[in-house]
Predict the 3D structure of the following.
Amino acid sequence: MPLVAGVDTSTQSCKVVVCDADTGAVVRQGRASHPDGTEVAPAHWWNALQTAIAEAGGLADVAAIAVGGQQHGMVALDEQGRVIRDALLWNDTRSAQAAADLTAELGADHWAKATGSVPVASYTVTKLRWLRDAEPDNASRVAAVALPHDWVSWRLAGYGPEGESPLGPKLDALATDRSDASGTGYFNATTNTYDRELLVRALGHDVILPRVAGPDEVIGTVYGTSCVIGPGAGDNAAAALGLGLEVGDVLLSLGTSGVVAAVTEVQSHDASGLVSGFADATGHFLPLACTLNAARVLDAAAELLGVDHDQLADLALSAPSGAGGLVLVPYLEGERTPNLPNATGALHGIRLETASRSYLARAFVEGMLCGQADGLQALVAEGLVAKRVLLVGGAARSRAVREIAPLVLGVPVVVPPLDEYVALGAARQAAWVLSGAAEPPAWVRADEEHYEGDLDDAAHARYAQARDSFLARP
């Protein structure tokens, strides 16, 4: 029984799972925290990985490992392999003006055609432009740019700054995969090539970039062992691989924000910026739309009604579909899909008969899900034919969300058991690399819940009317 390991080096923590390569069964696991903040010294990721690996029983009996990680972060290295400044994470928004400048210089259409995405503050390319403008001395020292998962994989293989690593600063040993490269803003996932002109436009000069490995390629070995290293993946692509998404499947992740992503055969090129044209971890594509309002909408409803989340679900399910015409537009923290950063939430259609706790609970749940349906519709406009939705994230624990979702989304909903799907996806990739097979191993996932129901067209129409009132504002 060969063992493989998967790593999730996320914003908040590092998780390691050790799995049976044949079945995917988790044998052991470990975890360590990352510091808070939107800029972090990458050394914290390395230290957390060592702690998590030790808690997971080490790698002595592990045959292969791969790293999934938070997308977009900027790890700037000098010629000696030293980190020049703390890494800017995906959620660091100081590069918002840089994103606007880059878009204005070439036009949204150019960026969408060249990279599949229009620059936003989370992308690496905008952080490089910010570095050029705000810290020109640091920018001039940059010899290589890596992403969080690239850098962790590089360190696992024994590379790094002189005196801190056994093999030293071999920058051309950096390697990544299509999925993470596709979130940089200077990679074309259709041709699988970097766009050096976009890189230079952002940073001001060319640098070494990680080699883009194939999805089942060995990129090295863990230093001092025979454990091979897979190419890894960005977090959303790793989660899709861990969930076993296939073409036509949609991932809906309901955490603080909502993420709608789908496996497709063709890259999207959405000049509106609503859909990001990312790649997946298998050779396909993973167009993605993000909404700012998801689980925290339910938190607000529970606080407003003075109930816990189970009681909120009971209240919502006691009211009829459509909440009697009561509609919540859930832009409690502005919104990205559609792009309304300064919007606020609004409650429409309240009458005497709907002025009750149950109708209000239903409106909050339906409004949050309608916001996700907007994200799904953005993907459909790019050519997606959705077969089913896999629902994950904290808000998927809500019975009301699970039962109402098919009525709002209009497709069957599958709820897999709560698990560390980014780490599991990385482990599945490691098993694929180890096997030498043409496809990833078919790990079977048990205990799925299935929900179906007919789309409530009337409720959708009322929500669309309320939502469009925001779009009509000057």
About this structure: The two ends are 63 Å apart (CA to CA).
